[in-house]
Amino acid sequence: MRAAERTLVTGQSVMLVLLYVFLYFPIFYVTYLSFVDNSVWPFPPEFTLEWYERLGIMSDFHEGLLNSLTIGLGSGAIAALFATVAAIGMLKYRVHRRGLMIGLYLAPLFVAQVLIGVSTLMFNRNVLGLPGNMTSAILANATYCLSFAFLVLMAQLVRYDWRLDEVAMVFGAHPMRCFFEVTLPNIWPAVLGAFLVSFLLAFNNFEISFYNLGAVPTLPTIAWGTLRHGIEPELYAMASVVNALVFTGFVVLYVLIRTGAVRLGVPGR
Question: What is the mean pLDDT of the chain?
Fold first, then answer.
């Protein structure tokens, strides 16, 4: 390798390291602050679990965590279900105006989350006569997450050999039996990946949940409310708990991709 090439590779490596430091140092710093007694960077630091103990006895945190998990699980399940049906319909059957239908499924990607939250609230109140509640928050988050789940399913199903379904139906399998015994066992990793992505997006969402729930707390709204009155040490602990949950979801998805359970991309590439 020539000197110029070595210099270029070294420069790229340094820039990559600096980029990772810029992205992840704040996360690790917040985690560090959640374990120290004084946040003014004393040396040597005095480590403590006091902030986690206080967080554990906060009733708002328990309620917010339960609500966030409910929204994440509900929205993830709905988004994964509808994305699976839509992706199979787009790729397996001759859908009229397929490009338009795919564009409609991807449309929420280009709409601000604030607009989704406000429009859902206004529709429920003015058209349906319903106040904002957990159901509307789950449905609104599912609408936003549907596009991401649809992309994950489409990327996986372009690899699927639909002749397997045809063979099963030739031998007398009912379409529903064909789906549950042939199609689903082959595509379940992609369905799980779509669910995980949707869960993480809905779990961490602030704008959509805030406009549909109002005073009902979720973890993002609790964090936002705490910031209005100054940063308390318990907020560091809560941020660390949320980061741990999110990173766990990403690790699961990463392991699925690395082991080949979930494959993204076009066949042959």
Answer: 81
